[in-house]
Specification:
By secondary structure, this protein is mostly helical. The chain has helices spanning 8-31, 35-54. The chain is rod-shaped, with a radius of gyration of 25 Å.
């Protein structure tokens, strides 16, 4: 054994932080999108709406 005492509260908190960080990384991969991706998708949706509106018949 090492001659150094171990603070069990610190070990417990460090373990909880590591688990939380791992879960956050998994969620970022699963759900996260960059700001550029969101902007690109928004621009594509706007373009599609304008394209559709341009082909409407006038009454």
């Amino acid at each position: 054994m090492s001659g150094k005492p171990v603070n069990l509260n610190r070990v417990r908190k460090d373990k909880a932080r590591a688990e939380k960080r791992a879960r956050a990384d998994e969620n970022a991969v699963k759900f996260g999108r960059t700001k550029a991706e969101k902007a690109r998708d928004g621009a594509a949706a706007d373009k599609a709406d304008k394209h559709l509106d341009g082909h409407k018949r006038e009454t």
